[in-house]
Design a protein that fits this description.
With 198 residues, this protein is α/β, with parallel strands linked by helices. It has one domain: Peptidase C15, pyroglutamyl peptidase I-like (Aminopeptidase, 3-Layer(aba) Sandwich). It contains five helices and eight strands. The protein has a six-stranded mixed beta sheet, with helices on both faces. Helix 1 links the parallel strand 1 and strand 2. The protein is globular and about 45 Å long. The mean pLDDT is 92.
């Protein structure tokens, strides 16, 4: 498989009431469904720990050199899909599953305060909202592991990453409707990446 055409998709490991994290279940569904002939899909489960998340993401970018990385996280209590535009470097004060948080509250020492995805998530969400789908755009990923992982990936991947918060309840949360919708969203992001219309 040509590394340039690999899309990495990550989901998170067990967290609080989620013994199997819905984001990881969605990543597994996407691996089975695929993204069409041009792209190979590589999936990885990320433990809900700052240290591991950072190590794994840096390693994925260095070894696989993917075309794009999509990080799936779960939005508790939400029944919509949320596309995140930017990752933030500071403000990480909530403890992870091991009771740890970065001493400096920071993801990358000396890194920029914020990093944006090269994909215009507003235009992707608009495309789907017009089709009557529950997809919303956000510029604040929440300063926890999802935001932390996203910033790390944007940093190592030169902005070629996405963070998608999947719903934890409601119709769209069921795998049957979630996976095809995520598949369509990721394809729309890849189209934008290919067009260079960024």
């Amino acid at each position: 498989m040509d590394g340039g055409e690999t899309v990495v998709i990550t989901g998170f490991g067990p967290f609080r009431q989620f013994l199997v994290n819905p984001s990881w279940r969605a990543a597994q569904g996407l691996k089975l469904a695929g993204l069409g002939e041009r792209f190979g899909v590589y999936i990885k489960e990320i433990p809900v720990t700052y240290v591991k998340a950072q190590q794994i993401i840096e390693e994925l970018w260095q070894t696989l050199k993917p075309k794009f990385a999509v990080h799936l996280g779960v939005s508790r209590g939400s029944s919509v899909i949320i596309l995140e535009q930017k990752g933030k470097n500071n403000g990480y004060s909530d403890k992870d599953v091991r009771g740890f948080c970065p001493e400096s509250g920071c993801c990358m020492e000396g890194g920029p305060e914020k990093l944006d995805s090269v994909v215009n998530m507003r235009s992707v969400s608009k495309q789907f909202t017009q089709a009557g789908t529950d997809v919303i755009y956000s510029r604040d990923a929440g300063r926890y592991l999802c935001d932390f992982a996203y910033y790390s990936s944007l940093y190592h991947g030169g902005g070629r990453a996405a963070l998608v918060h999947v719903p934890s309840c409601g119709g769209p949360a069921s795998a049957d409707s979630l996976v095809p919708l995520l598949q369509a969203l990721i394809r729309a992001m890849l189209d934008q990446l290919e067009d260079g219309s960024l």
